[in-house]
Task: structure prediction
Amino acid sequence: MVEPVIEIEVVYAAVDRQVLRTISVAEGSTVRAALSACGIDGDFPELDLAGCPVGVFGKVIADPDVRVVQAGDRLEIYRPLLADPKEVRRLRAAKAAEAKAGKQ
Result:
């Protein structure tokens, strides 16, 4: 008997380029299995698919080894942040306060 397949999208955005692939996976595949099947790590050797954070339609998946993909899902592979946004805002506010104090 033929195993039913579903289509999903896998996306990844590096600093210099983005990739979107539509792939077919077996129904019941986990997020991690689908990522392994997509072959995107061949295009981005620095990408660690086993440990990188992933999401579906912008929502981070807590356990990609358990979460089963659904037809039409868009799996997103996330890069680590270069800077903590809270820390950047704090530094910007401190700099603005310092500049304001210097004008007085």
Observations:
- The first helix runs from residue 31 to 38.
